[in-house]
Amino acid sequence: MTSSVESLPLLQGVIDCIDVGTLVLDTKERVVLWNRWMDRHSGVLGTETLERSFFDLFPEQRGKRLEAAIGQALRSNLPSLLSQTLNRWPLPLYVSKSAAEKGERMQQQITVTPLNLGNSERYCLIQVSDVTAAVQRENLLREQAVALRSQTLLDDLTGVANRRHFDMAIDRETRRARRVGTPLSLMMLDIDYFKAYNDHYGHQQGDACLEAVASALSTMQQRPADLFARYGGEEFAVVLPDTPADAAVMMANAMCRKVRDLRIPHQASRTDERIVTISIGVASSDSSNAGEVYDLINAADRALYQAKACGRNRVHSI
User: Which of 72, 104, 208, 216 could make an SS bond with 99 (beta carbons 3.0 to 4.6 A apart)?
Assistant: First the structure.
């Protein structure tokens, strides 16, 4: 070795105790230090790497970001950080033997640092950190956050969108309809004589009825932007962006039929069939009459009131 690395045995002993992959390259990109962490996770012993070109050991790094970082350190004295986000598995390093057998590389963060030892010769230090556990924790936290957010937007009983989700959606779609000039339809619907149903069958059966109706109707919205939500009690709402009045009325009639086809007994109903039915009010806006959110909701509410006043188990539109 050159005089600049005469203390190599001591330095080797120190870096062997470090729980980070550590290797040093000389100006010709040859390995002069390689610690036991690298032995353990690469499957290559340090004695097999000394004086060998880094790119003979890791040929797939030719032309990659790591080669550029090594060049910057050796020739321009510039340090580099290869973040895990953009360079997840640059080197064939493995957390365990079983992971190596499966070809599952560890998640890595790599720093490349120029080393000046007081003479004309320059080296670069490469440190590799195992961030697999940290990435897994981050992914778990992200999944938990998504799950928590989705729970706050779902109705506990029926599993469909809740009132908060509805409020967000109708506000967003009303503003979009005004801006783009597209039609927007809203349905307000509820289960006919539901109080009588609860009184006759009990609240537990009433909850089961709400779940069955919500499950059947929520499958009818096929487009991602459509939203079926529980508005409150036995009342539900359907937001239909880019949908004119005639198409919304057609869907509303199909929803009435869908609930009737469930054939849920309702002996306390005042309808002829004595089964659970729904009434629906439909309101629509387009570029010529687009108003505020509450205008559309109030119009759909009035239409629902008219459907009930006309005998229930029907659709009324405004």
Answer: 104
